[in-house]
Amino acid sequence: MATETKNLHRKGESFIPTHCSYCGMQCGMNIRVDDATGNVVGIEPRYEWPVNQGRLCPKGVTAYQQVEHPDRILRPLIKRNGKFIEASWEEAYDLIERKFKEIATKYGKDALGVYGGVSMTNEKCYLVGKYARVALGTKHIDYNGRYCMSSAAGGFNATLGMDRGSTLPWPDLLHSDCFFLAGSNTAECHPTSITWFWRGRDRGAKLIVADPRETPTARIADVHLDLKPGTDSALANGIAHILIKEGYVDNEYVAQRVNGFEDLEKMVERFTPEYTSRLTGVAQEKIIKAAHMYGEAEKSVVMFARGVEQQRKGVDNVGSYTNLALIRGQIGKFASGVATFTGQGNGQGGREHGQKADLLPGYRKLTEPKAVQYISQVWGIDPAEMPGPGVSAYEMLDSIHQGTVRAMHVICSNPAVSSPNAQHVWKALEKLEFLVVNDFFLSETAEFADVVLPTTTWAEDEGTTTNTEGRVIKINQIRKPAGESKPDWQILSEIAARMDRGKHFEYENAEQIFNELRVASKGGKADYYGITYEKIEKQQGVFWPCPDLDHPGTPYVYQDSFPTPDGKANLRVVDWQEAGEIQSKEFPEILTTGRVVFHYLSGNQTRRIDFLMEKCPEPYAEMHPEMASKYNLQDGEEVELETRRAKMKLKVRLTKAIRKDTVFVPYHWGKELSINQLTNPCLDPVSRMPEFKVCAVRLRKS
Ligand SMILES: Nc1nc2c(c(=O)[nH]1)N[C@H]1C(S)=C(S)[C@@H](COP(=O)(O)OP(=O)(O)OC[C@H]3O[C@@H](n4cnc5c(=O)[nH]c(N)nc54)[C@H](O)[C@@H]3O)O[C@H]1N2
Ligand SMILES: Nc1nc2c(c(=O)[nH]1)N[C@H]1C(S)=C(S)[C@@H](COP(=O)(O)OP(=O)(O)OC[C@H]3O[C@@H](n4cnc5c(=O)[nH]c(N)nc54)[C@H](O)[C@@H]3O)O[C@H]1N2
Ligand code: SF4
Ligand SMILES: [Mo]
Questions:
Q1: pTM
Q2: Which residues form the 4Fe-4S Mo/W bis-MGD-type domain (predicted)?
Q3: What is the number of helices (H) and of strands (E) in the chain?
Q4: Which pLDDT tens digit goes with each residue over 336-346?
Q5: Do 121 and 157 have their domain in common?
Q6: Domain coverage including residue 696
Q7: Residues 277, 395: one domain?
Q8: So what's the pLDDT on residue 3?
């Protein structure tokens, strides 16, 4: 446990420093604990923490209310005759052992699937990968980050040679001259970041926002590029065209550090402002103004999020925007570069250490024999036993329909709400012969389960996460686990023992797992070997890569070269392509989905917090009054939205802050309120990211 400090404001209380349970900002906060009961009673921001400097958002200030919440699952649940009955851990484990062994014997080990998540610490995420491959022996493992960071990962790997979400530490933003934000609603989704832009603007920095909606983020922009959903690579190519034509290219940087400039120059030749405007729907003057603003800035940062990534061409979009920073010579320098906003709390670390279908710890590839050899030795198994690469999250759920995966263990995710084409996914979950879910609140996915295992919340265990900057930080244990709940690492280790693999999972605490992870990541791209719990505490976090104990960590990556075979970055030269589904006579409008400030992801955590539900109780269809009048709809009336997959009813919310051809619906609700019933499971060919951000929809007054 971390050092406690007495709360000077309230007698009988202590403060324990930790970080928020929600987004990738991982804001620093102190949890208030009642000394007499040991219960969590409140939260206060940490002023000394460099990323949020005393600020928290509405989710952050209420995060503590999860810990003592009456909805917590306190004992294992087993479904009998369609109803959950409380059971002992032994009973639950007996059943899991019997079913997993039966199914593996009958259909092979690959019939077992593991579906992980990155609201967990690095220690737990690492162990989920090891559990799938060593305890269950299956190749079928993937995780919810597939729907989140996979296109950023694919784009950065291809252009920069490595997948670290940010090339610079956040406090640098204070010194940047221009921010180019694409598909990020920072004000609602990474609220404590927006102040970095406000403070920048106070000293004259410019803000450019590319978003089909005039979000609270776009409202403060110097230029708002209100593009049609699905046209990002066209917009980025159009900006590159102007930068090249008007002499904004850093020729020296490009000559020394970048491949593919001539090809890019040739390809973007046709992306004149006129052509770009026609494709994207953004006025030519705005495109030109944005290009000049970005081109003239000495220190600029291109930043993006799911708006550009959750598309069939998410990887291309990431590459096309990264091109801008590369031709301007911005990457690897102070207060400039490129960054994607990490979504979930440990969206960065959780994708580095082997939860992904094709990756082993430290970003090692399962397809590389040397990597398999090394990790097998760390895990104490024969390399021949290591399962090969599996398939992506949506494909794994889909494969249940083919009988490929027959049992599944979902750990820290709610795919019944978060997956595209949700009704198809519900049928798959129903079809499973056996489903185990680890969660602390009964989720829509857990309702399909045969066994639900109660886990601890983030406040009841310790470990590390890696924030949006790439800074590895420490989550501290605040109180003892509620009821009979256990940390995920302990549950997985105990099931491993039941699967006769206990000797590979002998851990007494999270730190032992971290020490194994350090060794497993050693020599990989995401090298954590030099990071220890003490060092994190001493240095306010440690940026990876950190290859040895004397190494201070790496706040700035790519200062001298890129981790590619020739040390140079590769421009992504891609023409623009249509979205997977485009408007037609039958489905004439565009549907896009995303978030609101008051809810988090599938909503399983935030729909239980009174304050947040009062602020935003249900989903709605946000549209322009001109679109509404076409369908004779008024504010507050019910509209039926229908896509090729399903239809549902929602209340209309009118706003002029959205394109006239686009409907926006937040996705934080399940069952009949789930907009994912309508979304398109069309996948990016590289990242296997579904196209949550664009599909064709029709409206009917209901
Ligand atoms: N309040 C809140 N905060 C969160 C979360 C949450 O659920 N709630 N979740 C966290 C997680 S896991 C994530 S991944 C992040 C997500 O953070 P963001 O990516 O910022 O959030 P989204 O609302 O998904 O999408 C951002 C914007 O993309 C725009 N957009 C839609 N289509 C397009 C397009 O084709 N091109 C462009 N350029 N923009 C488009 C939308 O209008 C939206 O404003 O937030 C994190 N923070
Ligand atoms: N239409 C549409 N769909 C989307 C998106 C979109 O923009 N539009 N965005 C996608 C994105 S970016 C994301 S990240 C996904 C998220 O999708 P999900 O992963 O399904 O969403 P969460 O609500 O985070 O689910 C996490 C679950 O784990 C539980 N949990 C939290 N911490 C722990 C823990 O430590 N251990 C265990 N065992 N359980 C824990 C929570 O209670 C919750 O039930 O949704 C995706 N789906
Ligand atoms: S910005 Fe993210 S990390 Fe910070 S308080 Fe809000 S949800 Fe938590
Ligand atoms: Mo996400």
A1: 0.97
A2: 13-71
A3: 22, 31
A4: 999 999 999 99
A5: no
A6: 589-701
A7: no
A8: 58
Identify the domain boundary among 340, 375, 390: 340
**Ligand 3 atom at minimum distance from 19 CA:** 3
- Residue 572 φ/ψ, nearest 5 degrees: -95, 105
Question: Does any ligand 2 atom lie closer than 6 A to the CB of residue 147?
Answer: yes
Protein residue closest via CA to atom 30 of ligand 1:
307
Q: What whole-number distance in Å separates Cα of residue 179 and Cα of residue 351?
A: 26
* 530 touches ligand 1 (CB under 6 Å): no
| Token pair 């919440």: residue | 69
- Cα–chain center distance at 285: 34
> In terms of domains, do 323 and 362 share one?
no
Q: pLDDT value at position 4?
A: 65
Residue 384 has pLDDT above 60, yes or no: yes
Structure tokens at 168: 């610079």
Residue 549, classified by CB atoms within 10 Å of its CB into exposed (0-12), middle (13-18) or buried (19+), is: exposed
Among protein residues, the one whose CA lies closest to atom 8 of ligand 3? 60
Instruction: Report the C-alpha gap between 664 and 694 in whole angstroms.
Output: 10
Does residue 601's CB lie within 6 angstroms of at least one atom of ligand 1?
yes
Report d(CA 554, CA 544) in Å as an integer.
Answer: 6
Ligand 3 pocket list (CB less than 6 A): 20, 22-23, 25-27, 52, 56-57, 59-60, 190-192
Sign of CA dihedral 620, 622, 628, 630: negative
* Count of residues making up the chain: 702
20, 44, 47, 65: residue to mutate for ligand 3 pocket, most atoms within 8 A of CB: 20
Same domain, yes or no: 132 and 156: no
My answer on whether 31 and 155 are in the same domain is no
The Å distance, Cα 432 to ligand 2 centre, comes to 20
Whether 251 and 286 map to the same domain: the answer is yes
What CATH number does the domain containing 659 carry? 2.40.40.20
Measured from the CA of 56, which atom of ligand 3 is nearest? Answer: 5
> Same domain, yes or no, for 331 and 354?
no
Give the total number of structural domains in the chain.
4
- Look at residue 1 and tell me whether its pLDDT is greater than 70: no
pLDDT digits (tens, 9 = 90+) for 262-279: 999 999 999 999 999 999
pLDDT band at 459 (very low <50, low <70, confident <90, very high): very high
Residues 503-555: pLDDT tens digits?
Answer: 999 999 999 999 999 999 999 999 999 999 999 999 999 999 999 999 999 99
pLDDT tens per residue across span 430-451: 999 999 999 999 999 999 999 9
Q: What is the CATH number of the domain that holds 458?
A: 3.40.50.740
The two structure tokens encoding residue 248: 């904004």
The residue from 311, 340, 369 where one domain ends is 340
